[in-house]
Design goal:
The chain is α/β, with parallel strands linked by helices and 163 residues long. The chain has one domain (5-152): YbaK/aminoacyl-tRNA synthetase-associated domain (YbaK protein, Alpha-Beta Complex), CATH 3.90.960.10. The chain is built from 5 helices and 8 strands, in the order H-E-H-E-E-H-E-H-E-E-E-H-E. The protein has helices spanning 5-13, 30-37, 70-77, 87-94, 140-147, and strands spanning 18-21, 45-52, 56-63, 82-84, 113-116, 125-128, 134-138, 150-152. The strands form 2 sheets. Strands 4-2-3-5-8 form a 5-stranded mixed β-sheet. It has a 3-stranded antiparallel β-sheet with strand order 1-7-6. Strand 6 (125-128) and strand 7 (134-138) form a beta hairpin.
Length: 163
């Protein structure tokens, strides 16, 4: 099986994971990947890049069936001017095309990364490996360690962002 930079990074850190593949002709999106691999959509993590004030960027990870609460994202960023990064700026920043961005190994130190707290309730999560058709399955705790992210509430309007 192909060794990708994301795999090598996890191997270097000694973080356990599973490599899975699915047909490259699978329709893009977390729901499609979940169906192809036999997971629930929530378990397939959307790796999103947001920008604040057109300058600062951060990685945001939520379940495939979840949407980010705008007000929560604004609190996390400390800014009201938040937008999704363009495909071009995502590629320039990460080196990966939208659709299979790994949530680790490409970030400089102290790059802000956030994982929705609801994902900590899952036994296993799937994240992009950097190439469409390749997925990494990892525990939530190991994903936190690999991505050096902060766990916050990004999707539940009824709860505070920080806990």
């Amino acid at each position: 099986m192909t060794e990708l930079p994301a795999h090598l990074y996890l191997d270097r850190l000694g973080i356990p994971y599973q490599k899975l593949t699915f047909d490259e002709s699978t329709e893009k999106g977390a729901a499609s990947v979940a169906r192809a691999l036999g997971f629930r959509e929530r378990q397939m993590v959307k790796t999103l890049i947001f920008e604040a004030d057109g300058i600062r960027r951060a990685l945001v990870m939520v379940g495939g069936d979840q949407n980010v609460v705008s007000g929560h994202l604004k609190k996390v960023f400390g800014s009201r001017n938040i937008s999704m990064a363009t495909s071009e700026s995502v590629l320039a920043l990460t080196g990966y095309a939208v659709g299979s961005i790994p949530p680790f190994h490409w970030q400089p130190d102290n790059f802000p990364s956030f994982l929705d707290s609801a994902l900590m309730n899952e036994e296993r999560l799937g994240v992009g490996a950097g190439v469409w058709g390749h997925e990494i399955v990892i525990s939530p705790c190991d994903l936190v360690r690999a991505s050096r992210c902060q766990v916050v509430n990004l999707t539940d309007k009824s709860k505070d962002v920080f806990f």
